Amino acid sequence: MSRIEVVSSVLRANQVRAEETRARLDAAGVACVNLISAPGSGKTTLLQKTITALEGIPCAVLVGDLQTTRDAERLAAAGAPVVQINTGRGCHLTADQVAEGLDRLDLSQIQLLFIENVGNMVCPAGVDLGEHRRVALLSVPEGDDKVAKYPTLFQGADLVLLTKVDLLSVLPFAVRQVEEDLARVNTRAPLQQISTLEGTGMDAWLAWLRALVAG
Ligand SMILES: Nc1nc2c(ncn2[C@@H]2O[C@H](COP(=O)(O)OP(=O)(O)O)[C@@H](O)[C@H]2O)c(=O)[nH]1
Ligand SMILES: [Mg+2]
C-alpha cells in the first residue's frame, strides 16, 4: 500500500469508530462536546468553572495530554469523573482512545461529556472523536490573526469561544478582525466572548450547553 492509501485507511477506521461512539452516546442519552485550542487558551479553567456551575447536569471529562495528569487533577477537584488519556507523542486524541476512555466511565450517571483535546490548533481539527458538538477556543493573548491562519479548526467548529476577554483592555486585539475572518470560513458557529477570570460570558456558554443537553 502506498503511504496515501495507508493514511486514508487510518482516517476511515477512525471515522467508523467515531460513528460507533456517537451511537453509544446517543443510546445513553449523553451529549458530548469536544474542546479544541492551542495550549493555554483556557480549556481546563473553563471546564473547572463549568462543571461547578452546571448544577443538576452531571458531567464527566476525558482529557488528552502528551504527558502528566495535571489537567485531570484540576478537573477531578471540580467534582467530575475524569479519565486521563496520555497520547505520548500524539498531537491529538483519536476515536479509539476516546472509545477506550468511555469504557472507564458509567454513562448512565452522566448527561454531558466534555473532551479536552490535546492543546494544538492543527492536528485535532481533522479528527472526529464521536462528539456531537465541537468548540474552538481562541484566547486574546494568542492574537487576532489566528482564525485566518488556522481556518480548518474554525471551519469545523459549532461554537467559537473568544477567551480571556478581560485582557482586551491591556492587549492590542481587534475583535472585529476575528469576526470578519470567521465569517469567511464559518457562518454557522456563533462567536461568544468569555472570561473565566471575571465571569463575563459564562451565562451564554452555560445556556448553550443546557440547550444541547435538553436536545
Ligand atoms: N486573564 C485570563 N487568564 C485566564 C483565563 N482563563 C484561564 N486563564 C489562564 O490561562 C492559563 C492557561 O489556562 P488553562 O485552563 O490551563 O489552558 P489550557 O491549556 O487550554 O487548558 C492559566 O494560567 C489560567 O489561569 C481568563 O479568562 N483570563
Ligand atoms: Mg488543559
Q: Low-confidence segments, ≥5 residues, pLDDT <50?
A: none
CATH A-level architecture: 3-Layer(aba) Sandwich
Largest beta sheet: strand ordering: 3-2-4-1-5-6-7
**Which cofactors or ions or other ligands sit in this model?**
guanosine-5'-diphosphate, magnesium ion
Q: How many β strands by DSSP?
A: 7
Radius of gyration: 17 Å
Order of helices and strands: HEHEHEHEEHHEHEH
Q: Tell me the overall shape.
A: globular
Helix % is 40-55%
Number of domains: 1
Biggest sheet details? 7 strands, parallel
In percent terms, what proportion of residues is strand?
A: 15-25%
CATH superfamily: P-loop containing nucleotide triphosphate hydrolases
For this structure, the CATH topology is Rossmann fold
Structural class: alpha/beta
In whole angstroms, the N-to-C terminal distance is: 43 Å
Q: Total helix count?
A: 8
Oligomer: single chain
What's the mean pLDDT score?
95
Considering the chains and any ligands shown, give keywords for the structure:
single chain; alpha/beta; Rossmann fold; 7 strands; 18% strand; binds guanosine-5'-diphosphate; binds magnesium ion
Summary, kept brief:
Helix content is 40%, strand content 18%.
